[in-house]
Amino acid sequence: MSVATENLVRNAGGFSPLNTFSLLLVTALSLYYLYWRVSRRRMLELAEKIPGPKGWPILGNALEFIGSPHEIFMRVYQKSEEFGRLAKVWIGPRLLIFLTDPRDVELILSSHVHIDKSPEYRFFKPWLGDGLLISTGQKWRAHRKLIAPTFHLNVLKSFIDLFNKNSRETVKKLEKEMGKEFDCHDYMSEATVEILLETAMGVSKKTQDQSGYDYAMAVMKLCDILHIRQTKIWLYSDYIFNLTKISKYQKSLINTIHSLTRKVIKKKREYFMEGIRGSTAEVPEELKSHKYELSTSTKTTTLEGTSYGQSDGLKDDLDVDDDVGEKKRMAFLDLLIEASQNGVVINDEEIKEQVDTIMFEGHDTTAAGSSFFLCQMAAHPEIQERVVQELNEIYQGSDRPATFADTLEMKYLERCLLETLRLFPPVPIIARQLQQEVQLASDPNLRLPAGATIVVAQFGTHRLAEYYPNPEQYNPDNFLPEKAANRHYYAFIPFSAGPRSCVGRKYAMLKLKILLSTILRNYKITSNLKENDYKLQGDIILKRQDGFRIKLEPRKFAGTVKA
Ligand code: HEM
């Protein structure tokens, strides 16, 4: 017998410690797998009935999520068209169910029970902590109750002058791009960060040594990283992620972001100690809009038909009566600092988390929304001219700043904005973790299992032909009051809806109207590109992978604004 054969025989006959360990490991893993399958029996049983693409053993459909953000986005969208309004995918052991039918979407979003965010939101934790976007339970309820009134219409009206001032500054900055093709998203990002600093945070942007642009760029890169983590299953583990180079890069980006947050809070506290409340940003005398309110008050302005971003029939905690006994409402950071003085409702760390949350949610979403709007104006010159005609009628040759009453008159512009948010919702999906089973409204034979992640895909909902005839076409008349009134409320949800709706939706709509109308009063926007040319990518916030490229020409009409 050769030596090799002798070894084989010895190894086959005896039990080395390694063999014993392997045997125990295999047994333990098998038992665990069995337990895991049994404990998930109900989930698997219900999931079996839900349609979805075929997957691989163990991996499920994880391979579908490999590729560039644009490729992933388009693949998921095409698959969802194939499977209709309900589709399941497995990413390894995780079950994701995509919903687009407004009747089913309503079951999830209107519920006070299904408010838990999906596990993917935990990747935001090092950045946003337990801020409003990701917290849940009692903490979320208490902080939502505190924060929602700070975005009440009465507070927002006090921001009009700052919206005007910053919009004019943006127009001035855009001058250097005249005649060239450029990406307007950078300008929109910078503007939205700076407007947030001066309004919700109440500090002058001049007090920051870091520009809004640097902050916005850090947020954009951080979103790229979070998207990579959400789509690469092997990076789900913090342990593995922390070994990678991107983890180090993430830390440096979060540092940049948090250093702005810390400075803002420190500044605001100093003002608070000095007894200063409200925004410290200065507005030139000629931009104080109350001086012009009288001249416009003869118009028959009414809140009726002004949607503030959701179907008229829907109400949430932002829709409380407008004149609650003349109670003085405070802006976001003023109120948080005041509340923290007794430390009961919110402590210092929690303030930081909420400031980070509002700075992120409040800037990247509106930057994408306004950039898509400008691209749509460029792609549809005839619609742009109708918007400008409406502005002409409102301003009658004056270069005065916008008043609140003017924003109510911008009805066609508002329809164009809503239509932009329909086709290109800046938040294209919302994910919730289901703790209880739910029977579907669209098909009572099907139940969503507890433990599944429900992906409300508003990008798909907004393109259902049943609610929007010719759904791929940009048609602002989809938002004529009579058309909107006859649609399912949850067929239009760019700001989500229900108890966890966007707290900034009224803020966003008002600010966007002033910013975009100011740009259109100054520039004609052009482009050779149509919507079909857009390469969409849905990494957290919907963007154009090819950039938001437009050209500007000076607009010579009687209402041109002096920037
Ligand atoms: C066009 C602009 C905006 C869009 C499309 C938008 C959309 C949304 C959506 C879809 C959600 C739900 C997200 C989810 O459940 O995962 C949300 C939540 C939120 N948004 Fe916005 N948003 C916009 C602007 C703003 C602004 C300007 C602010 C603040 C100034 C803001 C603050 C928030 C906050 C704090 C939440 C979390 C609310 C909660 O969970 O209670 N958003 N937004």
Short description:
Pfam families: p450. The protein has 22 helices and 11 strands. By secondary structure, it is of the alpha+beta class.
List the helices and strands and how they pair.
Blueprint: H1 3-13, H2 17-39, H3 41-49, H4 69-83, E1 86-91, E2 94-99, H5 102-109, H6 125-128, H7 137-147, H8 153-157, H9 160-174, E3 182-183, H10 185-198, H11 212-231, H12 238-242, H13 245-273, H14 290-296, H15 332-340, H16 348-379, H17 381-395, H18 404-409, H19 411-423, E4 430-433, E5 438-439, E6 447-448, E7 453-456, H20 458-461, H21 481-485, H22 505-522, E8 523-526, E9 536-539, E10 541-544, E11 549-554
Parallel strand pairs: 2-7
Antiparallel strand pairs: 1-2, 3-11, 4-7, 5-6, 8-11, 9-10
Helix pairs in contact: 9-10, 9-22, 10-11, 10-16, 11-13, 13-15, 13-16, 16-19, 17-19
This protein binds protoporphyrin IX containing FE.
Question: Main attributes?
Answer:
about 575 residues, alpha+beta, Cytochrome p450, four-stranded mixed sheet, three-stranded antiparallel sheet, 22 helices, 11 strands, about 10% strand, binds protoporphyrin IX containing FE, iron ion binding
